[in-house]
C-alpha cells in the first residue's frame, strides 16, 4: 500500500464563515464524500475537521473545515479560538457566506487573511436561493478578489471553485522546493546518519529521514544510510567523498569527530529549519543563549504530539545541554501541536523542533509571532550545535546562515576588545 503524502507537504485550504452558511456542505461537495456532518441546525461543526485529498492538477491538499466564526457562549468562544488557530496554517483562505449575509464577521476574516498575506477566495454559497449584492461584486472585481458562486447541495460551482484554488495557490508551494538535494546534486552522494533508538521504533524511520531519502531519490542523487557507529568505516569504503553528511542532532559530536573536515556536515533538524522556516532567523535566535542566566524561562515547542520517552530530546536532552552551557538552572515550558502561548513575552528564548509535520506557512507564522513579541526563536539542531560549539561546522552548507553567524562572532569579538 503506498504511503500517503504527509500533511506538511499538502497545500492547506482553510474554510471560514458564519454558522450554517454551508462550509461543511461545500467540503463534502469538493471531496465527494461525507467528511463533515451537515445539519440544518447552526453550530454543527465544533472542532476543525481535516480532509486530505488529491486536487488535480494541483496535487495533495488538506481542507480544514472550521466552526462558525460567529459562535456564541462560553463553549462557542472556545470553538472560535480553535478556528482562529487555523489561520496560522492556512495557505489559501476561503470565506464562505451566502447572498445577503456579508457583514462585520466576513470583513474581519478578510482583514485577517490580508494582514497575513494569505490568498483569499470569497464564496457565495446557496445562490440557488438568491443573488449576491451587485455593489459587493463590483467592489471585489475592483479589488481583484476571486469570487465564486456555489450551491453546494446541488453541486453547482464546484469546478469553478477548484479552478480558483489553482489560480490562488502560491508559486513556491507549487514548485516543490527540495529538502537537501540542491546541496548534493544529481549523481552525487549524501550520507545520512540515522541512530536506531527509542525515538525510531523497530521497522520505522522518523519522518525527516524518510522525507530526505525520497528527496534525494527524486532528484537523482545517491543515498547511503548508516548508524553513527558505522560512519567512519562507511566513509573509508567510498572511492570519493560524499557531498554532504546529515546526522541526527543528538549524535553531533561523534559524527563531527568521524567526518573529515573537508566533508560538509549538518543535521536533519537544521535542514528542516531551512525547508520549513527561515534558517538565518533561527541562527540569530540561537545567539540569545549567550544572554541566558539562571532562572530565565525557555519555551520548547513541538509540532507533533508524540508521547515523550525517558530521554526525550525536547524535555530532557536539550534542557540538560543548555543548562550545562549556561551554568545554571533554567525554567522550561513545553507545548505540542498547534498550541502556542499568547504571552510569549514571558520567555527569553523559544526552541522549536524542525516542524516536519507542518507546512511552511505555519512555521513562518510562529517566527512572525515571536518577532512581534520581541522573543528570539531557534531550532533544536541549531541550539544543540550552539551549545556544543560546532555552529561554524554545521552551517557551512548554508552560506546565508553562515554569514549571519560570522557577523555575530565579529560583533562579539569587537565588543570584547
Key traits:
417 residues; alpha/beta; Rossmann fold; 4-stranded parallel β-sheet; 16 helices; 17% strand
Describe this structure in words.
- The protein has 16 helices and 14 strands.
- It is α/β, with parallel strands linked by helices.
- Helix 11 runs parallel beside helix 16 (399-416).
- The termini are far apart.
Describe how the helices and strands are arranged:
Elements: E1 11-17, H1 23-31, E2 49-55, E3 59-65, H2 73-86, E4 92-97, H3 104-115, E5 120-124, H4 134-142, E6 147-149, H5 158-168, H6 171-174, E7 189-193, H7 207-218, E8 222-226, H8 231-237, E9 244-247, H9 252-258, E10 265-267, H10 268-276, H11 279-286, E11 297-302, H12 313-326, E12 331-336, E13 349-352, H13 360-373, E14 377-379, H14 380-388, H15 391-394, H16 399-416
Parallel strand pairs: 1-3, 1-4, 4-5, 5-6, 7-8, 7-9, 9-10, 11-12, 11-13, 13-14
Antiparallel strand pairs: 2-3
Helix pairs in contact: 11-16, 12-14
- Continuous helix count: 16
CATH topological fold name of the largest domain: Rossmann fold
Low-confidence regions: 36-46, 72-76
Question: Which value, in Å, is the CA radius of gyration?
Answer: 24 Å
Provide the β-strand percentage band: 15-25%
Helix share bin: 25-40%
Largest sheet: 6 strands, mixed
Regarding CATH, which class of the largest domain? Alpha Beta
**Helix and strand succession?**
EHEEHEHEHEHHEHEHEHEHHEHEEHEHHH
**Total number of domains:** 3
Which strands sit side by side, in order, in the main sheet?
2-3-1-4-5-6
Amino acid at each position: 500500500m503506498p504511503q500517503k503524502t504527509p500533511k506538511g507537504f499538502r497545500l492547506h485550504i482553510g474554510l471560514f464563515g458564519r454558522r450554517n452558511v454551508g462550509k461543511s456542505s461545500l467540503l463534502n461537495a469538493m471531496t465527494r464524500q461525507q467528511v463533515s456532518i451537515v445539519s440544518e441546525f447552526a453550530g454543527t461543526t465544533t472542532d476543525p475537521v481535516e480532509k486530505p485529498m488529491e486536487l488535480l492538477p494541483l496535487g495533495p491538499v488538506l481542507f480544514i473545515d472550521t466552526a462558525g466564526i460567529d459562535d456564541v457562549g462560553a463553549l462557542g468562544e472556545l470553538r472560535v479560538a480553535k478556528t482562529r488557530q487555523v489561520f496560522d496554517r492556512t495557505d489559501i483562505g476561503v470565506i464562505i457566506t451566502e447572498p445577503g449575509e456579508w457583514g462585520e464577521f466576513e470583513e474581519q476574516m478578510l482583514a485577517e487573511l490580508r494582514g497575513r498575506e494569505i490568498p483569499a477566495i470569497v464564496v457565495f454559497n446557496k445562490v440557488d436561493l438568491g443573488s449576491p449584492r451587485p455593489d459587493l461584486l463590483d467592489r471585489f472585481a475592483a479589488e481583484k478578489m476571486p469570487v465564486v458562486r456555489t450551491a453546494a447541495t446541488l453541486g453547482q460551482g464546484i469546478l469553478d471553485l477548484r479552478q480558483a484554488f489553482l489560480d490562488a495557490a502560491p508559486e513556491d508551494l507549487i514548485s516543490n522546493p527540495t529538502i537537501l538535494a540542491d546541496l548534493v546534486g544529481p549523481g552525487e552522494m549524501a550520507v545520512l546518519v540515522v541512530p536506531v533508538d527509542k525515538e525510531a521504533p523497530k521497522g520505522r524511520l522518523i519522518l525527516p529521514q524518510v522525507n530526505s531519502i525520497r528527496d534525494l531519490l527524486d532528484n537523482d542523487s545517491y543515498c547511503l544510510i548508516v548508524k553513527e557507529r558505522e560512519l567512519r568505516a562507511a566513509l573509508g569504503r567510498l572511492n570519493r567523498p560524499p557531498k554532504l553528511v546529515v546526522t541526527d542532532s543528538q549524535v553531533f559530536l561523534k559524527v563531527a569527530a568521524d567526518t573529515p573536515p573537508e566533508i560538509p556536515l549538518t543535521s536533519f533538524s537544521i535542514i528542516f529549519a531551512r525547508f520549513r522556516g527561515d534558517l538565518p532567523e533561527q541562527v540569530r535566535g540561537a545567539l540569545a543563549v549567550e544572554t541566558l542566566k539562571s532562572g530565565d524561562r525557555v519555551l520548547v515547542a513541538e509540532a507533533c504530539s508524540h508521547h515523550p520517552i525517558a530521554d526525550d530530546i525536547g524535555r530532557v536532552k536539550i534542557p540538560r545541554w543548555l543548562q550545562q552551557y549556561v551554568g545554571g538552572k533554567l525554567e522550561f515550558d513545553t507545548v505540542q501541536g498547534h498550541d502556542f502561548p499568547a504571552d510569549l513575552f514571558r520567555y527569553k528564548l523559544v526552541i522549536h523542533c524542525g516542524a516536519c509535520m507542518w507546512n511552511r506557512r505555519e512555521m513562518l507564522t510562529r517566527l512572525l509571532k515571536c518577532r512581534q513579541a520581541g522573543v528570539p526563536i531557534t531550532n533544536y539542531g541549531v541550539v544543540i550545535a550552539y551549545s556544543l560549539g560546532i555552529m561554524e561546522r554545521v552551517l557551512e552548507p548554508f552560506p546565508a546562515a553562515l554569514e549571519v553567524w560570522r557577523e555575530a562572532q565579529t560583533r562579539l569579538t569587537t565588543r570584547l576588545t
